[in-house]
Amino acid sequence: MIALTLDMKSIEQSLDDLGTHVNNYVIRGGAQAAAQAFYDEAKINAPVLEASGHWFYGTHQKYYFPSGTLKASIYQVFSKDKSNVIAGIATYQISWNHKKAPYGFMVEYGTSRSPGHAFMRPAWINAKDRAGKLALAHMAESMTEMQGKS
Known about the structure:
By secondary structure, the chain is α+β, with helices and mostly antiparallel strands. Helix content is 53%, strand content 13%. A hairpin with a 4-residue loop joins strand 1 and strand 2.
């Protein structure tokens, strides 16, 4: 008689660890690589006045913003709410900080008195192919590293 006992808990734990690593490192890292391309492009495209700054006229008062405020307010952030690492979905958001530069929407889309100077839409157009390639390259490199460690 041959008796065989397998401890599946350690195998299950190893598979769980691998899945967690793939989702958190490979997929999220790939998404961040793509997000970085869009972020960099948005920063390049954001208009900066040659003057020292400009006035923004709100409903009840006016505000002064130094030149370069909009460019400095551009950020990228991992979105926990829109991501699902278990399902392999990692979402990053790239935008401008609306509190630091509340006029960003008017710059992007224009107003009834002034044409827009889009910087986010061109970032998407200019970087989407490069972003996809960067994401795939990062994920492939991460998977190769994982295979080398096993």
